Amino acid sequence: MDHWPSRYQVRSGFQLHSDDCNVYRKLWRCVRYQRRRGIPSTVSLLNPVQAYGAGLPGDFIQGIGNPHDSFPNKPLGAFWQDSWRVRPNFTLNYGVRYDIEFPPQFASPTPLALAGYNYLGIQKGIQTAAHNIQPRVGMAWDPKGDGKTVVRGSYGIFYDHPLLGLYFLGDASDASTSDQLVFAGTGLCTVAGNPANLNAIPIFQVC
Q1: Which of 16, 19, 98, 118 pairs as cysteine with 73 (C-beta 3.0–4.6 A)?
Q2: Residue 39 confidence (pLDDT)
């Protein structure tokens, strides 16, 4: 909406839209040839190149569960601004904008995931900030008034919305619907049926 009284040009408006996300990340598996710190491994004396050549992974990671998720995100923004022609060769622009997010509401985490949240002292999802007031001011000055040289300056505070991928990671990858199994490379393949074979090296080598 525009309003033009004499030397002023006043504008205001708002924006509301919905970002509907439907995300699917494939379950994946991988091997690492560098031992994870704190996990005992029989390949701890080998460097990654030597372990790769010998086919002795430091650990094996397998994704499980359902890594699919869908959710909406609704950002709302509103602004007001004025362009004031103080003098024929000097214009002052000033205004303010406000943005707020209405993030998705996720189901409560499973007991296993909740234990991790409590241990780390965090919560599920992303907290919404309600103090996103963004003042802006700018000026344009024509020193000689001939339109050949203009000096400009501006200042403003700006906020951006969070990456929607963080919502997905906080919901589908927190062990509530999908997880990762990590097997350290703790020994070579032995006789069939030995529980000790359930480690990265026999799994990778298909013992």
Answers
A1: 19
A2: 46
CA 159 remoteness from chain centre: 15
Q: Please write the tens of the pLDDT for every residue from 87-108.
A: 989 999 999 999 998 888 887 8
Task: Round to whole Å and give the CA distance between 5 and 84.
Answer: 10
pLDDT of residue 207: 66
Rounded Cα–Cα distance for residues 173 and 177 (Å): 7
d(CA 56, CA 34) in angstroms, rounded, equals 10
Closest CA to 100 of 74, 136, 135: 74
Q: Residues 2, 12, 15, 99: what is their CA dihedral angle, to the nearest 10 degrees?
A: 160
pTM score over 0.70: no
Which residue numbers in the chain have pLDDT < 50? 36-39
User: What six digits make up the tokens of 73?
Assistant: 């995100």
Buried b (16+ CB within 10 A) or exposed e, 91-107: bebbbebbbbbebbebe
Dist. CA 29–CA 27, nearest whole Å: 7
Q: Could you list the residue range(s) of the whole structural domain that residue 88 is in?
A: 2-205
Q: Where are the alpha helices (DSSP H) in the chain?
A: 48-54, 111-120, 164-172, 200-205
Q: Is 129 helix (H, G, I), strand (E, B) or coil?
A: coil
Residues 142, 50: Cα–Cα separation, whole Å:
68
The Cα 146–Cα 141 span in angstroms is 11
| Tokens encoding 181 | 């199994």
User: Based on C-alpha coordinates, what's the Rg of the chain?
Assistant: 29
